[in-house]
Amino acid sequence: MKTKILLIEDNEQNRYLLTFLLEKHGYEVIQAVDGLQGIEAAERVRPDLILLDIQLPGMDGYQVAAELRNISSLQHTPIIAVTSFAMPGDREAGLKAGCTGYIEKPINPDTFVDEIMPFIANEEAGESK
Ligand code: MN
Prior knowledge:
The protein is of the alpha/beta class and 129 residues long. It contains 5 helices and 5 strands; from the N terminus they run βαβαβαβαβα. It has one domain (4-124): 3-Layer(aba) Sandwich (Rossmann fold).
C-alpha cells in the first residue's frame, strides 16, 4: 500500500510542486486547501504524514495542528510544519502546537523528499509491533 501524505496548503503553486515531487517518489498525495478541509481529510484518510502550511486563510497552521492533536486517531501522526516565517521562535511555536517537525520555505526540490523521509520511517517502525 502506498504511503499517504496529506498536504494542507492554500497556495496552488506550492501544492503543485509538492504533489509533483511526492508522487514522483511513489507517495499518494491528498490535498486540502485550508484548515477545515485538512482536518476533515485527516480524519477520513488517516494519512501516514501531514504536511502543514502555517500561513493559511482562516485557521492558521498552529490552530490546525492543535485541532489535529485533539483527534484520538491522529495523536501520533507526524505533522511537519512548512512555513516561510523565518522568525526566531517559530519552530518552537510549531512544536508547541503539536507539530513533529519543521521545514522552511522555499523548499529545496532536490532535498525535500529526503527531509520528510525520516518522519515516515519513524511512523512505520512505530506500527510494526
Ligand atoms: Mn499559505
